[in-house]
Q: What sequence folds into this?
């Protein structure tokens, strides 16, 4: 058991739907595009989720290629998520607000044999923390609502 | 049915575990901290997930406060996720690589009655696309491995 905890804070910006977040010294602004009610000052949270997903897979690939005997000259991943806005914008019953599905395409530049690269793809998916979290969900505990007067 | 699709591309950087991602014109660099094998040039993907989660809740709160009759003077959310690195670093059987649980605390500055704010908290959770995706998981389809020679 080697427990680690990650933390972040997300704060409503001035006006509109802008959100400023911080995590261990790094900042990011998120917003919605204009067609979803924002002013397009940053990626939106669902795009943030895709970026985290693709980045996690790339990191697993980069971290483990050598140990898995894979020649890794380049690696990039296209991610795509589909959603029905009737869920979150309109609250229509039976329509989930979240992603209905997520797709990804892995591009590997490598001289390793094709079969070995397919095995490595499976390895990457099985070890990737974000893939596991998105595929299987996680327990979400809302400990507290703090009302500031 | 109002289908929308979000897309991103994540590309391995030069050396180390750095990843450069793009989504509709916005860029973000992710990396791992030094104790997880990186050079700490950006938040890591699990922190990216938390930031997306907190930002999504803030956006739902900001977007719907007025329609829900809530006085919203300020809103910020602390998020925290726990993980056992034996899963993704060592591949120990029975240890999931992803988040074991996620916690969050909502801070609302408001003059609305307490009971109404607790209702609003439930509303935010029920409508938030990232909360739903993390809590219930989603279908992940790995369509393709493209081998670039």
A:
């Amino acid at each position: 058991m080697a427990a680690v905890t990650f933390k972040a804070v997300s704060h409503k910006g001035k006006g509109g739907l802008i959100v400023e977040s911080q995590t261990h010294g790094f900042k990011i602004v998120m917003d919605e595009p204009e067609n979803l009610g924002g002013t397009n000052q940053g990626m939106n949270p669902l795009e943030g989720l895709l970026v985290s997903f693709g980045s996690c897979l790339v990191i697993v690939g980069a971290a483990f290629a050598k140990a898995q005997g894979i020649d890794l000259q380049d690696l990039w991943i296209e991610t795509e998520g589909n959603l029905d806005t009737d869920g979150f914008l309109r609250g229509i019953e039976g329509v989930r607000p979240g992603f209905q599905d997520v797709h990804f395409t892995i591009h590997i530049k490598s001289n390793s044999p094709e079969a070995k690269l397919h095995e490595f793809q499976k390895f990457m998916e099985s070890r990737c923390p974000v893939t596991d979290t998105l595929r299987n969900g996680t327990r979400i505990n809302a400990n507290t609502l703090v009302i500031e007067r």
In short: The two ends of chain A are 41 Å apart (CA to CA).
